[in-house]
Write a structure and sequence with these properties.
- This protein folds into four domains: about 120 residues, no CATH class; about 110 residues, no CATH class; about 100 residues, Ubiquitin-like (UB roll) (Roll), CATH 3.10.20; about 100 residues, Herpes Virus-1 (2-Layer Sandwich), CATH 3.30.40.10.
- It is built from 15 helices and 13 strands.
- Strands 9-8-11-10 form a four-stranded mixed beta sheet, with helices on one face. A three-stranded antiparallel beta sheet has the order 4-6-5.
- Helix 1 crosses helix 4 and helix 4 packs antiparallel against helix 10.
Length: about 475
């Protein structure tokens, strides 16, 4: 269950945009189950859609006055050596800068030196000198002490230099340039406009070392990251800043990503194998219950490590212990038989019968009350309910639900038109039961199309789960299953 947050941001949303998968995906975890009947395909489509939105769409209004969002995007366009085209490019670049800022005091020094050799292949020294001279000419003619934005300086110098790429590179290298008259080029980031700005300053006033380069601090980067997250990714705050062409689809995609919290990792037989160790035997064990109850399902296999001298009797003991410690329903399990090796005694060494990493079946019994096997087979216990929600959900998915007081069928509060920020009503009738034609019908859930259902004075469902939270509390009446 991934519900982690960093600096007020849902990391499963941020990391899905930057990397295409949740943070746990770095360790092999993949989509397991989505809330509101979301599937793996739906999740991946939402990730692809949101992360591929073009940044140019946020500049389509052609207004002469830039918004704070446009200024912030433009700042990272200016800082990046490579073109940032999509939301994924933007957030990945900011995360890169953040990691660099946290690790090194001057993260961009090495980067620029590395880039210089590639850039020199495209332009000559005369090209660089011409671009630099054009920008210095602009800075000399402005009023003393006045800052010139990256955008304005780039626009003025473009009259003398055709290549926009050359101008961008020259602007990144302009900070700290020493002039013959004792001045140097200072650079800063305007906190109000998020724009990089330049001006000429005298070396006698302050050191060029302290004013020559602009490296976003960790605090600056975190501030911008949170601002962009709220404006571009957070479904609760994004709509006001989204272009009409992608507004609704971006909101839907972000909400779907947040509705996917459960991720799983599959362990196959190769993952169960341990590195070769001459002093240990690794045996994969599966168990079968003698006289098992109806609808019994065997658990996955477990890996058991044994000394090289272990016997079959020790294998039974250790395998039993492995399942006892893993599953509540098997706390009294005792392995009795090895059905694949019926003619071997318990004193036979395991290495004479099995190779390391081989799978072996064990049969046994659970002593005592067999009801434990049924009761603890699933985290939901013995409770039974019916879920039939308009979103397509047929079982509890961990999201807030409420039951109809007439038919007893559970559905999501959100799908019933009740916001996550609203309290759950004390009494509730689903749309199907409230319909004049089907008011007396039972069974079947409410296919309500997402509209607000009716609240009545009818009594509560007698099968309601979690009666202690059945009132109009913050979490309302929730089905409690694993």
């Amino acid at each position: 269950m991934d519900i982690s947050k960093k600096h007020g941001m849902d990391y499963r949303l941020l990391h899905a945009v930057t990397s295409g998968h949740p943070w746990y995906g770095e360790w092999g975890y993949k989509f397991g189950a989505g809330s509101f009947a979301l599937t793996s395909e739906t999740y991946q489509n939402a990730v692809d859609m949101l992360s591929s939105i073009q940044l140019a769409l946020y500049f389509s209004n052609r207004s002469p006055i830039r918004t704070p969002l446009q200024n912030t995007i433009a700042l990272y366009w200016a800082l990046s050596d490579r073109q940032l085209v999509t939301l994924r490019d933007l957030f990945r670049f900011i995360m890169h800068l953040l990691h660099q800022a946290q690790k090194m005091s001057k993260p961009s020094t090495y980067k620029r030196k590395e880039l210089a050799s590639d850039v020199l292949c495209a332009w000559t020294k005369d090209d660089f000198d011409r671009a630099e001279a054009a920008m210095l000419k602009v800075l000399r003619v402005v009023q003393t002490g006045q800052w010139v934005s990256w955008r304005a300086l780039r626009g003025a110098a473009s009259k003398a230099v055709d290549s926009q790429e050359l101008l961008d590179y020259s602007l990144r290298e302009l900070g700290g340039k020493q002039l013959d008259d004792g001045h140097f080029v200072a650079v800063r980031c305007n906190a109000e406009t998020s724009a990089i700005e330049y001006r000429l300053e005298s070396s006698s006033i302050r050191s060029p070392v302290n004013a020559a380069t602009f490296e976003p601090s960790v605090e600056h980067l975190l501030h911008d990251l949170r601002f962009l997250y709220d404006a571009l990714l957070n479904p609760e705050s994004m709509l006001s800043s989204q272009p009409e062409v992608v507004g609704s689809s971006a909101h839907s995609a972000a909400a779907k990503i947040l509705d996917c919290k459960q991720f799983i990792k599959h362990y196959d037989k190769h993952a169960l194998r341990t590195p070769s160790n001459p002093f240990l035997l690794s045996v994969r064990c599966s168990i079968e219950l003698l006289d098992h109850p109806k609808d019994y399902t065997a658990p996955p296999e477990e890996l058991v490590l044994l000394p090289a001298s272990a016997t079959l009797a020790e294998l039974k003991v250790q395998a039993s212990r492995a399942f006892q410690e893993t599953y509540l329903m098997f706390q009294s399990f005792q392995a009795e038989q090895l059905p694949d090796f019926p003619n071997f005694s318990d004193t036979t060494p395991v290495k004479h019968v099995l190779g390391s990493g081989q799978l072996v079946r064990l049969r046994g019994r659970c002593t005592g009350d067999y009801r434990r096997i049924v009761q603890f087979r699933m985290e939901r216990g013995l409770e039974n309910w019916t879920v039939d929600c308009s979103c397509g959900a047929k079982d509890d998915d961990g999201e807030r639900m409420l039951a109809c007081d007439v038919c007893g069928v559970w559905q999501h509060t959100r799908c019933s038109g009740i916001s996550d920020f609203e309290e759950v009503p004390e009494n509730f009738i689903c749309r199907k039961c409230a319909s004049p034609r089907k008011g007396k019908g039972h069974g079947g859930g409410g296919s309500n199309g997402g509209g607000r259902v009716e609240v009545s004075a009818a009594g509560r469902c007698k099968d309601e789960i979690g009666s202690s939270v059945g009132g109009a509390g913050k979490f309302g009446r929730m089905a409690t299953v694993g």
